[in-house]
Design brief:
Layout: H1 13-17, E1 31-35, E2 39-54, E3 74-88, E4 91-101, E5 107-119, E6 125-132, H2 150-153, E7 160-171, E8 174-184, E9 201-202, E10 210-227, E11 230-246, E12 252-265, E13 268-279, E14 285-290, E15 293-298, E16 300-310, E17 312-313, E18 322-334, E19 342-353, E20 356-365, E21 390-400
Antiparallel strand pairs: 1-2, 2-3, 2-21, 3-4, 4-5, 5-6, 6-7, 7-8, 8-10, 9-14, 10-11, 11-12, 12-13, 13-16, 14-15, 16-18, 17-18, 18-19, 19-20, 20-21
Length: 401
């Protein structure tokens, strides 16, 4: 999960509305190579570890149970990543590769980002390659926490795809993103050949009847509005895609719609989003994959999410740059009769100091794969047959270099 930024949504409303946002921490202590003629290549990265206490088996075991979620009382390596950033006049490029351990014997790794960009004289930008899909309130949905919100787990936040994205900033105070993708992010190397990837995508891990994402188009529009001292970025997003049928199934389609708003007043930030998605498949769920495992997801659902946070710059504390406390709630509300909703609430704070960025989160959920021991019925985003609230206290230590 872990994010790439120090202070998400702490800038102006227009900056929040744009997907041009980058992280101050991603280049905390970079290696810079190049000159005026060749351009500038910055090499950085991050290493992160988790401490977890919660409703888990006491001893980490196999993949799919407590190991990849930490195990109660366990300290585990979360991820190691390498970042490349290149700039040469109007040209730019970004690349990111991630490594995730599962336990002492297995691991998985994949390409997270890989695109080439060109800045036009108008201030617009074109990105070609593996880039973030423009959908929702911000790059990470509404969330400030390490856990994201439930949009992420159904493929509607921080979702990476291969194609072309055009970011248009020249319609008065509107920012409009257009994108056309030919495929989802390629799966990397792991024990699951379809699900060794960062973002949640429709996959066909069994090789039998199922679906895979073949392509999609996106549009996202955000405008800046001033309400007294409150700066707001209000907008909407739309997505339409094709699902390629496998094992004799015919091709189907999908769509998603969202309205969202980011509101800032002094250090306060209130972000909300309401989305609806629908997969027109032969069934009532689709198989989605990420983090080296697959999970069924309801084919139709509403997804409300809200986050309230406060950014405090800690000038009086020598060892601390900033602290951002937050409280968040999100849910997957299924339309299938008899299926239980999947709710998640997070209370926490993010601490930044130098190259360190630490999340301290207390998460509660009755339907999230990463919270609680879910070994008996692994269907949190579909039927959610357990329908039991579980808890995870998590500290994520991250050092960005």
């Amino acid at each position: 999960m872990n994010k790439n930024r120090k202070t998400l949504l702490a800038g102006s409303a227009l900056a929040v509305g744009s997907f041009l946002m980058t992280s101050p921490l991603s280049a905390a202590f970079p290696i810079v190579l190049g000159n005026d003629d060749l351009g500038e290549l910055t090499i950085g990265g991050a290493i992160r570890a988790n401490y977890t206490v919660g409703d888990y088996n006491n001893s980490p075991s196999s993949e799919g149970t407590s190991a990849y979620r930490g195990g109660s009382g366990a300290v585990t390596l979360d991820t190691f990543r390498i970042n490349l950033d290149y700039e040469n006049g109007p040209w730019s490029a970004k690349g990111e590769y991630r490594f995730y351990p599962v336990d002492g014997n297995t691991s998985y790794h994949f390409l997270h980002t890989a695109w080439i960009g060109y800045d036009l004289d108008t201030g617009d930008q074109v990105q070609v390659g593996l880039n973030r899909t423009p959908f929702g309130a911000g790059p990470y949905g509404t969330s400030q926490s390490w856990f994201f919100d439930q949009h992420y787990y159904v493929g509607l936040a921080d979702n990476m795809n291969v194609g072309i994205k055009y970011i248009h900033n020249q319609v008065e105070n509107w920012t409009i993103d257009f994108a056309a993708y030919v495929m989802s992010a390629p799966s990397g190397t792991g024990t699951n050949s379809e699900a060794s990837r960062y973002s949640y995508d429709v996959v066909n891990a069994s090789g039998g009847e199922g679906y895979r994402e073949r392509g999609q188009v996106n549009v996202r529009a955000v405008t800046d509005v001033q309400f007294g001292e409150v700066e707001s970025a209000i907008g909407g997003s739309a997505q339409y895609g094709i699902l390629a049928g496998r094992g004799g199934l015919s091709d189907e389609d999908m769509f998603a719609l969202a309205i969202h708003a980011v509101n800032q007043w002094e250090g306060w930030n209130l972000t909300g989003q309401l989305s609806y998605y629908e997969y027109s498949t032969d069934g009532n769920s689709v198989e989605m994959g990420a983090y080296n495992f697959t999970t069924p997801v309801a084919d139709k659902a509403w997804v409300p999410a809200v986050s309230l946070s406060y950014f405090y710059e800690a000038d009086q504390i020598d060892w601390l740059d900033s602290i951002t406390p937050y409280v968040e709630y999100s849910s997957v509300i299924k339309t299938e009769s008899g299926w239980n909703d999947s709710e998640m609430a997070v209370i926490g704070a993010a601490f930044a100091t130098g190259g360190w960025y630490t999340y301290v989160d207390l998460a509660f959920s009755n339907g999230n794969d990463f919270i609680g021991n879910r070994d008996t019925n692994f269907d949190q985003y579909a039927q959610n047959s357990n329908q039991s609230w579980m808890t995870r206290f998590n500290i994520n230590f991250g050092y960005y270099f």
